[in-house]
Design a protein that fits this description.
Blueprint: E1 6-9, E2 16-23, E3 29-36, E4 40-41, E5 49-55, E6 60-66, H1 69-72, H2 75-95, E7 107-111, E8 118-122, E9 127-128, H3 137-156, E10 159-161, E11 169-171, E12 176-178, E13 184-186, H4 202-206, H5 213-229, H6 246-252, H7 266-273, H8 277-284, H9 297-306, E14 328-329, E15 336-337, E16 344-347, E17 353-356, H10 364-372, E18 375-377, E19 388-390, E20 400-405, H11 412-424, E21 434-437, H12 440-455, E22 474-481, E23 487-494, H13 497-502, H14 504-508, E24 515-520, H15 522-525, H16 532-538, H17 548-556, E25 567-572, H18 584-588, H19 598-616, H20 622-626, E26 630-634, H21 658-666, H22 676-681, H23 686-689, E27 692-693, E28 699-700
Helix pairs in contact: 3-5, 3-7, 3-8, 11-12
Length: about 700
């Protein structure tokens, strides 16, 4: 995708004509001629540039906030613009058509995936309060009311403005307007240092604790103190002369408390100043928090799944592979294979297999190292094409096989690559898991050919997971050690969608697969208007019949009851396309998990289920409906869209490890409260578990 701005200068310092293509808040694509004025930096410490403009097709005055190409290559700068856009769009959805819309800048459009990303706002109302030395007593009351209204409206959306200052609040003599939306944070998230003293609260300045709506109350109090007295207040406590200013002392005394817990909420202050105002806001605007207790198709499905007995448990991970009648299921030919020291090979400098005789290696440390890089030729099925298995895969008990499922262009390869990269970066350590490569040479090649290019911003080629002989191949395999010291090989497969549909041999390995990751492409699944531009660029259309690869896999898996008992995760991939769409926005900007909270996992599953059920239709939810243990997730492997085969700000993954963590927990590699079943199904509520005596004296469930 190329930049959509083409400009020429009419004269030195004069307006510049350009054509802008952007997405409107309703999701439609708009192309308009625009004349742009002189550019300046909105805040000397921030990268965004700002300039006035005129949309010539409607004669609408506007303001453009943008990043240069150089700044856009900085992920931090793009994150600021994303935060600003997400906040502006959230407020537009909540306030459009209400009397409170004017409290904030009104977004006209945006293009955040261009090489020079930008936002367009309607012209601001008023001038920054920083230009006012001392505000008149007449204006103080209206200014205070509007500022508190803005804080309460944001609080109802679960948002906290962390950058409130005289520079970000505008006043036109009758009403206030709050800007600085790049500094908005979600309530309950860890605080990060942001803003300027004394306007940022003491806890915010130090980055301590969790973001609280009362952080902004401190900021508002400090802004008002400056406008009343003409000087800044104290950075850590109430000003010494507070009692000399009646309005401040009567309304905002507790707002200067050093701790958020001791300050009033925006609603309490608002009602103190304008009784009943908070109730009117609540009646006119929606709250952001979803109703997690509402009964819906997701909860009904979980209830039915909990009532279905689980299949027989799998073999204990870490059990010896060669004892008794044991062995390992070959992931290719699905026959049992055992370690055979006479069938080992290593690769030479030309990457050709050469026989290995470990008995000829006297040094035990060297022999162990060589064996780790060796492979065994599988001869379990003489009619099957030649294939080799890494030796560590055969010596640590039953392997865990994970397959990525989805048609081509869904982003499976990028997602799997970023999952592996997150593991090698230590993403499993908070959960007590350690990793080691099964085959060092294979792992080094994977990092060299997949991880490093993607991290450097290169778009990866399409999956080549099926060879000329038509059967599935490893993409990568790791040894995972859990908190109990048990070691288990984990093998990853990634097949192109066409191969899943047309190649029967490629499907054979599914009969012995342990876990599946179904990757949903939002451009194919969701008929949302703001995805039309992505569909046009990718050359795809909405498919109401679901992903053909999903159905092919589900129909091939062995079934012994009403549900398939393989563990599964559905991933709404390329979620950066939906980063401003509720409820995806609520999850995508969460920091990486450091512990597994089964309650939060079910909330995310419920939100994704509701989104797919509402917009995509039942065909896209078939994996969840068919598989007993299935969680749903949002993830983005790249954090943005490509531009000429590259990601302008590099590939910034978001929430790529969570689906894999869910699968590991379902297979017992991660201990969670309630056990592995609780990960996908939740704990059985008391009203489901306790027998109830019916009118005839018998028991019913």
């Amino acid at each position: 995708m190329t930049s959509t701005t083409h400009r020429h200068t009419t004269g030195p310092g004069g307006p510049r004509a350009a054509t802008l293509a952007f997405t409107t808040p309703s999701g439609r694509r708009r192309v308009a001629p625009v004349r742009l004025g002189r550019e300046s930096r909105r805040d000397p410490l921030l990268p965004q540039l700002i300039r006035n403009g005129l949309l010539d097709d409607e004669g609408q005055q506007c303001v453009q906030v943008r990043l240069t190409t150089a700044d856009a290559s900085n992920p931090g700068a793009r994150e600021l613009l994303d935060t600003e856009a997400g906040t502006a769009l959230s407020l537009y959805r909540a306030l459009d058509g209400t009397e409170y819309a004017g409290l904030f800048p009104r977004i006209i459009g945006y293009d955040l995936d261009a090489s020079e990303p930008f936002l367009l706002y309607a012209a601001p109302r008023g001038t920054a309060a920083a230009r006012t030395h001392v505000m008149s007593a007449t204006d103080q009351r209206g200014f205070t009311r509007d500022l508190l209204l803005a804080l309460y409206v944001l609080e109802r959306q679960g948002l906290v403005p962390c950058g409130v200052s005289p520079a970000t609040v505008l006043w036109d003599g009758a009403a206030a307007q709050l800007w600085g939306l790049e500094g908005v944070a979600r309530a309950g998230r860890p605080r990060r240092p942001w803003g300027r003293s004394p306007y940022c609260s003491p806890e915010q300045r130090r980055g301590e604790g969790l973001t609280d709506p009362r952080d902004a109350v401190w900021s508002a109090a400090q802004v008002l103190y400056q406008l009343v007295t003409g000087r800044p207040g104290h950075a850590d406590r109430a000003p010494a002369d507070l009692d000399e200013h009646r309005l401040l002392a009567r309304t905002l005394r507790d707002a200067f408390a050093p701790r958020a817990a001791d300050r009033p909420t925006p609603a309490e202050l608002l009602d103190l100043l304008a009784p009943g105002a908070a109730r009117r806001v609540a009646l006119a605007t929606p709250a952001a928090e979803p109703d997690t207790h509402q009964e819906d198709g997701f909860e009904q499905a979980l209830r039915l799944k909990r009532r279905t007995p689980a299949a027989a448990p799998e073999a204990e991970p870490g059990a010896p592979a060669g004892g008794g009648d044991g062995g390992v299921l070959c992931p290719y030919c699905l026959e049992t294979i055992r370690l055979d020291l006479t069938a080992l090979y290593v690769t030479d400098s030309r990457m050709q297999y050469q026989p290995l005789d470990p008995a000829g290696i006297g040094n035990p440390l060297r022999r162990q190292d060589v064996m780790r890089g060796a492979v065994q030729k599988c001869a379990a099925d003489p009619d099957f094409p030649e294939h080799f298995i890494p030796v560590p895969y055969l010596t640590y008990g039953r392997p865990l096989t994970v397959a990525m499922v989805g048609q081509s262009s869904t982003g499976k390869s990028h997602l799997l690559t970023q999952m592996i990269a997150a593991i090698t970066d230590g993403g499993l350590e908070p959960f007590g898991l350690k990793w080691q490569s099964v085959n060092p040479e294979q792992h080094a090649r994977f990092v060299r050919e997949r991880v490093q290019p993607l991290r450097n911003g290169k778009v990866l080629d399409h999956t080549a997971g099926v060879g000329l002989d038509g059967f599935a191949r490893f993409v990568e395999s790791l040894l995972i050690t859990d908190v109990h010291g048990r070691v288990r090989p984990v093998a990853f497969f990634d097949l192109g969608g066409e191969d899943l549909v047309r190649t029967d041999a490629a499907l054979r390995f599914l009969l012995g697969i342990d876990a599946l990751v179904f990757v949903v492409d939002p451009a194919l699944a969701l008929p949302l208007p703001h995805l039309d531009h992505a569909r046009e660029r990718l050359g795809v259309e909405v498919n109401r019949d679901g992903d053909l690869a999903f159905g092919t896999v589900l129909d091939r898996l062995p079934k012994s009851g009403p549900y398939l008992d393989v563990a599964a995760a559905m991933v709404l991939g390329k979620a950066d396309l939906l980063r401003f769409q509720p409820p995806v926005d609520r999850w995508l900007d969460r920091p990486p998990a450091t512990s597994l909270d089964t309650g939060l996992m079910r909330e995310e599953s419920r939100d994704v289920h509701r989104l797919l059920h509402r917009y995509a239709g039942p065909a896209w939810l078939r994996p969840f409906d068919a598989i007993r243990r299935c969680t749903l997730h949002v993830a983005s492997a790249t954090g943005g869209q490509e531009d000429h085969g590259r990601y302008p700000a590099g590939a910034g993954p978001r929430r790529v490890l969570e689906p894999l963590l869910s699968l590991f927990a379902m297979h017992g590699l991660i201990d969670v409260p309630g056990g592995a079943e609780a990960v996908a199904l939740g704990e059985t509520p008391a009203f489901e578990a306790v027998p109830v005596e019916d009118a005839r004296g018998g028991e019913r469930k």
